[in-house]
Amino acid sequence: MDLPTAEHFDEELVDVDPELHSAISQEYHTERDQISLIASENLSSLAVRQALGGILTNKTVEGYPGARYLGGSAMADRIETLAADRARALFGSAFANVQPHSGSQMNQAVLMAVLKPGDTLLSMDTTCGGHLSHGARSNISGQLFRIKKYGVDRATGLIDYEEVRTVARKHRPKLVIAGGSSYPRSIEFARFREIADEIESLLLVDMSHFAGLVAAGLHPNPIPVAHVVTSTTYKNLRGPRGGIILTNCSELAREIDAAVSPGIQDSPALHQIAAKAVCFHEALQPNFRSYAAAVLDNARSLAEGLKERNYVVATGGTDMPFILVDLRRARLTGDVVSARLEAAGILVNKNQIPFDTMGPRVTSGIRLGANAGTSRGLGPDEFHHLARLVADLLDVLVENPHRTIETEKGIRSQVKDLCRRFPFYASENGSHRRGSRTLTLQSCQA
């Protein structure tokens, strides 16, 4: 039998799997040379990536600290406890579950904890900014439960709280969900709680897209108001992909823990939990508030830049790390615009807008986020410049489509100049420690 030698475990990716290494290397170059305005993306620190790609990849654990099913879990208990303690400190909650592998699974766990199949829940319509895991028909949440929706006012694009109350009174859901993926304004959590209390329902707030603002004290904290709060740990928290569930209710905490494990997932990803712990530690530092404030300033700079060029920004602005652009007046669709912007070196995502007649694969809008660009060091002036570049391309698509390729080349040149001025990571070659190949960006420059 040909067993692996000790040297096998020290071989570099470039030597073991050149094909995969090439793909990762190309991704590094793509991210380095383009500006990501995708609202769900950000740049994680070296410390986060070291935790995520380190020795903990080898460790299997089941259960929770102090009650594991597998031996040798002392350090696992320490790591998970550290992550949970930091999450509680960051957001001011009594309980925190840091095991969910993703945002969809964290929300699925909450639904499993508080509902039974066939129960009714009330959430924002996805075309108005709601998230798939809040009851979309294509998601398991929309297949297991009876879903009722609320939307926004046609004139203002803002949540119509009286509509929420009317629908809640009529259908009396067992769970009300506030928060979503593309609603650009602050949500009045207290009004949602009043409605939930009136019908004896529970309130879930999904703060995935504004958790960093909450952590920095720049957005109202839903923890004192909601029964349970969920959040992803990337986006503007700058951590690894994954989710957390927070609550101040001990009874709910027990149900949620059981719903996460063994309910929807068994063994948690310990390396991911360790990276979350780093993320929370970084967000607890004083300079994180400056970052979060810059994200908000930059998102608003994007909005103002596009409004100056007469493009429609949903609700007229934003309280979030992103903006939503309505393309209907320009007679453009999100799929075309996102593809053309990508060719020009600017990454965005197509996105439905309220009362959109286009499906989710086409859409009448685009969503632009400030998380990753702010992490690169771009400020309001640079984001205002990006808004002008986006508007330049939109103008050409509307007025002179035959000049699209020429315009894309010009914009791409300006984007590359911006990327050179604000490198993807601190050093151009991706290395963060002298004399160590293993701490490079997957040895991407090899």
Structure, described:
The chain is globular, with a radius of gyration of 23 Å. The protein has helices at 13-16, 18-33, 46-52, 74-91, 103-114, 140-144, 161-171, 189-198, 211-215, 250-264, 270-283, 287-308, 334-343, 371-376, 380-399, 404-421, and strands at 35-36, 63-64, 67-68, 95-97, 120-124, 146-150, 175-178, 202-206, 228-232, 243-247, 312-313, 322-326, 346-347, 349-351, 365-369. Residues 428-446 have low confidence and may be disordered. Strand 8 (202-206), helix 9 (211-215) and strand 9 (228-232) form a beta-alpha-beta unit. Strands 4-10-9-8-7-5-6 form a seven-stranded mixed sheet, with helices on both faces. It has a four-stranded antiparallel sheet with strand order 11-12-15-14. It has a two-stranded parallel sheet with strand order 1-13. The chain has two domains: 55-283, 3-Layer(aba) Sandwich (Aspartate Aminotransferase, domain 2); 290-421, Aspartate Aminotransferase, domain 1, CATH 3.90.1150. Helix 7 runs parallel beside helix 8. It is of the alpha/beta class and 446 residues long.
